[in-house]
Design a protein that fits this description.
Radius of gyration of chain A: 20 Å
Largest sheet of chain A: 5 strands, parallel
Strand content of chain B: 35-45%
Mean pLDDT of chain B: 91
Order of helices and strands of chain B: EEHEEE
Oligomer: heterodimer
Chain lengths: 260, 69
């Protein structure tokens, strides 16, 4: 069992000390984003791939974050296999990287992943040499299908993107962890630090979050809280929880009570 | 010669003869890191920008990394 100083998160051929993956969206401004990412201790930061605005030329995420963080491009918003695969290929060219957080949403209201198309896109991308980290439903069978086609990790949701509802089905997440031969990253739905800690206590290898920090009243402070929560949850998982009991079990000695 | 093409989802009249010229025409710094281009659904790698022609009816995507989760 690794000690805390030697507890490496290995995924997609990379090794990290931090088990918190941060998104880069939705911050009030650039400085708050930078401060929050720093406070989170994250080494991996996700970015989206979008059409260059032909009017304004926004600052480059590569210049802003590239030296400090490993950038993980996503295919957020894609609704077809074709668009997701092309976005991944553009991301590979743009960032010179071989990994992708594969998102294929079923519709724009729920932002729920389209599992059928996800497996197809993952298979295509794996064949083209990508290391694929699919964002998926918290479905153990679907996760297995993704592993079968070569996914480097699975990223089951805790609850819908940006909902802050936490981990709605901890039993599914635990089942995914127990059966998975690849790292499990709980992605989406984290609202508060205890959600992140729970994900780690359930055995997830890492947590990915964005809005819980970027949308909070004090993002750098929340980022620090998330960092500690992920660490606490991980340590708790490694330490091994006590079994649940239906009745009390005294922790003080039962003998030598005064007055008996 | 002007070609009609679809650039980032919008119809456009293009004077540029190549992808590299198109980027210049659009004010995209070709040296900037993080820019990627696809023509008709296939990525055109950076070293090939200068040698890839822009033709009538081409669908061209010019992208870069943005914020996201």
């Amino acid at each position: 069992m690794p000690d805390e100083g030697n507890d490496i998160f290995a995924v997609a051929g990379r090794r990290f000390g931090s088990r918190l993956i941060m998104g880069s969206g939705g911050y009030p401004n650039r400085q708050v984003m930078l401060d929050s990412l720093a406070a989170s201790g994250a080494e991996v930061v996700t970015v989206s791939i979008r059409r260059i605005s032909l009017e304004g030329y926004a600052e480059s995420m590569v210049d802003l974050l590239g030296g400090r963080y490993e950038l993980l491009p996503n295919t957020a918003g894609c609704e077809s296999v074709r668009d997701a695969v092309l976005t991944a290929e553009l991301a590979r060219e743009a960032l010179g990287t071989d990994w992708v957080k594969l998102e294929l949403i079923g519709d724009r209201e729920t932002l729920m992943p389209d599992g059928v198309q996800l497996v197809e896109a993952a298979e295509q991308l794996v064949r083209s040499g990508f290391r694929v980290l699919p964002y998926c439903a918290d479905d153990p069978i679907l996760c297995q299908r993704l592993v079968d086609v070569g996914a480097a990790a699975v990223m089951p949701l805790g609850s819908p993107i940006g909902s802050g509802m936490g981990i709605c089905n901890p039993f599914n997440l635990e089942m995914i962890v127990r059966r998975s031969s690849v790292p499990v990253v709980c992605d989406a739905g984290i609202g508060v630090p205890s959600d992140a800690a729970l994900a780690m206590e359930l055995g997830c290898d890492a947590v990915m979050l964005n809005t819980a920090v970027s949308g909070s009243s004090d993002p750098p402070r929340m980022a620090g809280a998330m960092r500690r929560a992920v660490e606490a949850g991980r340590m708790g998982r490694l330490a091994g929880r006590i079994p649940r009991r239906r009745y009390a079990e005294a922790s003080s000695p039962q003998l030598g009570l005064i007055g008996t | 010669m002007t070609a009609r093409a679809r650039i980032n989802g919008e119809d456009a009249a293009v004077e540029a003869a190549t992808v590299a010229e198109l980027l210049a025409e659009r004010g995209v710094d070709a040296a900037a890191r993080g820019v990627a281009v696809a023509v008709n659904g296939a990525v055109v790698r950076r070293p090939d920008w200068a040698g890839t022609p822009v033709r009538e009816g081409d669908e061209i995507e010019i992208v870069k990394p943005f914020r996201g989760g």
